[in-house]
Amino acid sequence: MPRVRIVTFNIAHGRGLAPLQGMTTRRRIRSTLLKIARLLAELEPDIVALQEIDENSRWAGNFDQLEFLREFGGFDHAVFGINNRRAGLINLSYGNAILSRHRITESENIAFGRSQVGEKGFLFAEIDVAGRRLPVANMHLHYRSRLHRFAQVDRFLAYLRDKQRDRRHHWALSPIVCGDLNNTRAASDATATLLSHLHDYGDYTLHPLKGRTFPSPLPSRTLDFIFLPPGAKHARSQVVRCHLSDHRPVVADFEVD
Q1: How confident is the model at residue 22 (pLDDT cuts 50, 70, 90)?
Q2: DSSP 188-200
């Protein structure tokens, strides 16, 4: 299998560095997304995991941001995982998504709750890369409560156990897990907890190995991670310096035996 590159990036609804959602015009949002698409084209990833991306939200210009990035970033495949839906005057539809240069064979989205705004969740997909299926989980965890994050990690792990039992013989390796985990600086937060449980499936490695991702102008925290399973060999990673969101993207490269 050729070398695989994956990116995880919280794009903040396309608002760039504007402090509040809804304070940015549709034109400015489209301009920001075009710059993100160009960045992704330059990075040449096989798979991109996106958080805070809108399907049709008034506060984000009322257009399909995933289709915009797919077209202008040059990706052949995409899938949405909508966690928030609200109709009415201030309509909302947003969540997580995956872009891919390879066929997405299956996908399933799990929202952690039923809130119409602020809800988090994870999107699970199987991607056919050179005839081998790579499972990828793209998640976004609660931004305020560590207890909520722990509960969300537990729910994800229960889902993963069921998937491992039913699908592991179809996969080239154990699932790649990535996304915005919204950690505090505490060593006992969601990232460490998730990593310790993923070790049940082998020697996972956590990326980035160095560098911080939030806030993007002067980052002081690492919120965004890629967990690579033991079958991902010769892995390298980096945090990409850019100011197109309040997060910086993380890139990881690896090979599969």
Answers
A1: confident
A2: TSHHHHHHHHHGG
Tokens of 186: 């505490």
Sign (positive or negative) of CA dihedral 35, 36, 38, 42: positive
Nearest to 195 by CA among 177, 214, 209, 173: 177
> CA 49 to CA 112: how far, in whole Å?
18
Ranges of each domain in the chain = 4-256
How far apart CA 203 and CA 76 sit, in angstroms, is 32
- Beta-carbon contacts of 164 under 8 Å, excluding residues fewer than 6 positions away, are 174, 201
- Model confidence pLDDT, tens digit, residues 128-161: 999 999 999 999 999 999 999 999 999 999 999 9
**Cβ contacts of 51 within 8 Å, gap of 6 or more:** 8, 9, 10, 11, 96, 138, 140, 179, 180
Query: What superfamily would CATH give domain 4-256?
Result: Endonuclease/exonuclease/phosphatase (3.60.10.10)
